[in-house]
Each structure stands twice: as structure tokens, then as C-alpha cells.
Specification:
The complex is a heterodimer. By secondary structure, chain A is mainly α. Chain A has one domain. Chain A is built from 2 helices and 3 strands. The termini of chain A are far apart. By secondary structure, chain B is mainly alpha-helical. In chain B, strands 1-2 form a two-stranded antiparallel sheet. Classes of the chains: A mainly alpha, B mainly alpha. The interface between A and B is large, with 38 and 51 residues.
Chain lengths: ~70, ~425
């Protein structure tokens, strides 16, 4: 039982270090994603659009905008 | 039998008294560890410091210098900035004084933002004062502070309540991705390594050598105010369909853009922005030597405290080493360690991962840690020379990721600000176009 627990603790520690290293690598990857146009592609697929604003700066919201 | 000596048995609280910090009494053998220019117990060996710094230099050089290869002037300015960051990174790893050198980077970033943003807005839009027509044309810049207010109306109505397409055709989404990336990689560390507004707060909190306003009688419950403010602005933005924090409460409107004051209401709003900026970002940080805007007001900081829980890095207090001396309570810039939290050997959720507590702790009891990984013990902490163990320590990995993220995100702003300064010296104008 003790051996199994030690194994899982060691595995958990190794996994956390692996995640930490991957997070370091994610930083440059994230900025490459900006340059490569992936962000643009994903951004256009998100179903949230820019609001329409009046010349006084107020948001104009149609009733049809409310999702059902 | 060998007698065990506790070198910190006589350690006294390092709380502020009459604007001065009480001298910390420790065993003279340990005293050199706290002298200026010395190294902390968990500093890196020369080999691992050089390795980590060189790796960071390569990443930053590739991203910042290589990314500007079509613009030789920006490339040169970026090269200067990369060298600056590389020197700071080496000093951080070699000495272990994370907060001291991070503070230089962060302050430079905050100042560069102010210096670069207003001219950039003038170049892009042609005028500074925001008009209703600018809003209708979506000619408004956007920052990360808007994110909590935009999410709920966006999900419910499918509409962004903030008019922005000034710097990108994609409007809000680049900022959303940037925030997601920051949250994953450094979590709440965004507030001490990535936020340009925080850099200003940091700068003013470091200006005076001595604390003029003691926080001994400070009510630490006030650190929950940003969470209450967050709840209010999210709800209010949803009900009013307006980014209310930007309209009424953002202290940084005072150094970015303002709405053209055409009526009394806008004059009141402008007065509020200026008062909040002077009070929370300039005067209180100067007097208290703490980041009052970040710690006691910023609702995005509260939002990031919650969102940042997905990130595996934490700041933890070692029960076996902590003597409850209170040095960290008196020094935490964001009011995240109180006597109550320290009694439980914990830091608040609002901890911004700045590293100040680690610098002032006389026993090296506070560390950057990874979730689910035991803290480094006493002998292991002091041991140097085991190259790979030093390179993949949680603090090495966090500082590396945070400096890389902060360096890349600040690179364009700092490089363009350097060019603007040069241009100002030559022509008397900060505008490049």
C-alpha cells in the first residue's frame, strides 16, 4: 500500500513538473499563434459580434439580439 | 551530541515604526545573507543562472528582434530592450532577489506604456478626446480591465458592449486570447509581470526610500473590496449594457484617453478618474510603499485571482521554517498576507506572485511552489550546484515563464517608447508619423 502511494505521489510530482515545462513552452507558442492567423480564425468563429452604437455613444440593442 | 542552533531565535518583527523599518536581529553568521548585494538562500549557481538567462535571451531575441526584422529601427530598439531584460534575468536567477529586479522591469514597462500609448492613439485616431462619433465608429482602444464586464452580456446577448476596433479588426478577441494565455501560463502573476497599469503603481511605490504612512493599524479586510467591486461592475454592466468601470471608475483614464467633457456629467467622471489616479496610483503608493490600486481597488485583479486558480503556481509558506515574525505582513505590496493568514501559514488568494515576501523573509520560508509538489526542504534549498535540479525548480520555471511573457508583451511598447524618446530629442515631438 505504501509503495503504491509513493508511486502515485512521484507520478503526480512528475506530472506537475511536466505541466510547468509545457506552460513555459506555451508562452512563445501563444505569440506565434497571433502571428500565424489562428487567433483571427478562431475569433471570427466566436458567435459574439460588435455592438452597434449611436452617435451619442449608446449601445443599440434589438430585441432579436436576445438569445433564446 | 551536536547542539542545534536556531539562528533566528532572536528574530524580531520587521514592522514599520515612525517611518523606519526595525532592524532584523539574526545570528551574525546569517547576517551577510541580508546585506545589499548578497544572494538569497535559494539563488541559483552561476551555471544554471547563465543557462536560464541564455535560454531566455534566445526566446526573447527570436520573438522581439526577429519579429521586427522588417523595421530596422524597431529591431535596434528591441535589441536594446532584450539586453536590458537579459541582464535583469541574470540578476534575478543569480541573486534570488526576484522582486527587486522584477520591479525595475515592471516600472519601466508601466512608464513606457504611458509614454507610448497617448502618441499612438493620436497617430491612429488623430485626436485624444473621445467623442460619440468615435464610439459609433468603434474607434476606441480596449484593455484587459473590460473583460469581466463583457463576458456576461456577450454570452447572453451575443453582443459586445464595448465599441472597439481601433487597433485590430478583431476588436476584443486578441485581448481575450492574450488574457486566456496569461491565465494559463502565469495565472495571477499577470498582475506583477504583465499588467502595464500595475507597472505604474509599482513605480510610485518604489520612489520614496522610506515609508511615510505606516500600515500597522491598517484594516486588512479592505483587501476584499476589489472582489465586491468586481461583483458590482459585472452586474451593473449586464443590467446597463455599458462598461461602467470604464465610464466611472478607471483610474488609468487619467493617463490614457478621456471623453470630451461636453456636459457636467462628463466633467464629474473626468474628475473621478483624476482623483482615483492621484489617490490610488500616486499618493498612497508613495506614502505606504505598497501597490494600493492593485491591492485595494482593481476589480480585474480580483477577477484574475479567481481565474488564475487554473494555473498551477502558488506562493506557499513553509510551516517548519516560518517563525511568524511578520516581516512579510509588513511588506506585501498587495496586502495579501495578514497576521491571520500567516498564522495558518497561507497567503491570500489575491497574492500577485511579485516575490517581495520571499525577499524579506529572514528564514526563506516563503517560496514559489507548484500545486501538488512538496516544498523544498532546508538543506535542499541551500544546496547549489545541482544543475538540472536548479533549472527545473518551481521558482525557476515560474520566473522564466513570467519574464518571457512579460518581456514579449511589453516588447513592442517599450521599443516604440525608446524610439519616441529619441524622436523627441531630435524633433521635439513624440509622434513618429
Amino acid at each position: 500500500m505504501n509503495t503504491i502511494r509513493k508511486f502515485f505521489v512521484a507520478a503526480r510530482i512528475k506530472l506537475m513538473y511536466l505541466i510547468a515545462v509545457l506552460l513555459v513552452l506555451l508562452v512563445p507558442l501563444m505569440f506565434f499563434a497571433f502571428g500565424s492567423g489562428i487567433v483571427e480564425k478562431i475569433g471570427r468563429k466566436i458567435p459574439i459580434r460588435e455592438g452597434t452604437f449611436s452617435a451619442t455613444g449608446e449601445l443599440q440593442l434589438d430585441r432579436g439580439d436576445i438569445r433564446k | 551530541m551536536k547542539e542545534t542552533v536556531n539562528p533566528f531565535a532572536d528574530a524580531k518583527p520587521r514592522l514599520s515604526r515612525r517611518g523606519r523599518e526595525a532592524r532584523l536581529r539574526v545570528n551574525p553568521e546569517q547576517a551577510p545573507a541580508f546585506m545589499p548585494g548578497s544572494r538569497r538562500v535559494d539563488s541559483h549557481s552561476r551555471g544554471s543562472s547563465i543557462f536560464l538567462t541564455a535560454l531566455l535571451f534566445l526566446f526573447l531575441g527570436f520573438m522581439l528582434i526577429g519579429g521586427n526584422r522588417r523595421n530596422p529601427r524597431m529591431m535596434a530598439a528591441s535589441a536594446v530592450y532584450v539586453v536590458f531584460l537579459t541582464v535583469l534575468a541574470y540578476l534575478i536567477f543569480r541573486t534570488g532577489f526576484v522582486s527587486r529586479y522584477r520591479s525595475i522591469f515592471f516600472s519601466a514597462y508601466g512608464l513606457a506604456f504611458v509614454l507610448g500609448f497617448i502618441p499612438m492613439l493620436l497617430e491612429q485616431r488623430g485626436h485624444l478626446a473621445l467623442t460619440g462619433q468615435d464610439i459609433a465608429n468603434l474607434d476606441t482602444p480596449l484593455c484587459h480591465l473590460t473583460i469581466p464586464m463583457l463576458i456576461v452580456p456577450g454570452l447572453v446577448y451575443g453582443v459586445l458592449i464595448f465599441p472597439t476596433k481601433l487597433f485590430s479588426d478583431l476588436g476584443f478577441f486578441p485581448m481575450l486570447f492574450l488574457w486566456l494565455g496569461a491565465t494559463l501560463t502565469i495565472g495571477k502573476g499577470w498582475c506583477s509581470w504583465g499588467c502595464f497599469y500595475g507597472g505604474l503603481d509599482e513605480f510610485f511605490s518604489k520612489l520614496l526610500p522610506k515609508r511615510r504612512l505606516s500600515s500597522r493599524n491598517f484594516n486588512y479586510k479592505l483587501r476584499w473590496f476589489p472582489f465586491a467591486l468586481l461583483a458590482v461592475i459585472v452586474l451593473w454592466a449586464f443590467l446597463a449594457l455599458e462598461p461602467v468601470y470604464c465610464s466611472w471608475l478607471c483610474p488609468f483614464k487619467a493617463v490614457t484617453e478621456f471623453v470630451k467633457p461636453v456636459n457636467l456629467l462628463i466633467w464629474i467622471q473626468t474628475g473621478l478618474f483624476i482623483a482615483l489616479f492621484l489617490g490610488l496610483v500616486v499618493v498612497l503608493p508613495l506614502l505606504m510603499k505598497r501597490r494600493t490600486q492593485c491591492g485595494l481597488f482593481c476589480p480585474f485583479g480580483a477577477f484574475q485571482s479567481l481565474a488564475g486558480l487554473v494555473n498551477p503556481y502558488r506562493v506557499r509558506v513553509d510551516k517548519d521554517k516560518c517563525t511568524q515574525c511578520g516581516a512579510c505582513v509588513a511588506e506585501c505590496p498587495t496586502f495579501s498576507i495578514t497576521e491571520e493568514t500567516l498564522a495558518k501559514h497561507k497567503v491570500s488568494i489575491s497574492c500577485a506572485r511579485c516575490g517581495r515576501c520571499m525577499e524579506v523573509c529572514p528564514r526563506g520560508a516563503i517560496q514559489y511552489a507548484l500545486l501538488g509538489v512538496p516544498l523544498r526542504g532546508g538543506t535542499e534549498t541551500a544546496a547549489r550546484g545541482r544543475f538540472w535540479k536548479e533549472v527545473v525548480r518551481p521558482d525557476s520555471l515560474f520566473v522564466f515563464a513570467a519574464l518571457l511573457f512579460g518581456g514579449i508583451i511589453s516588447g513592442g511598447m517599450v521599443a516604440s517608447s525608446l524610439l519616441r524618446i529619441l524622436h523627441f530629442v531630435q524633433t521635439g515631438s513624440l509622434l513618429l508619423k
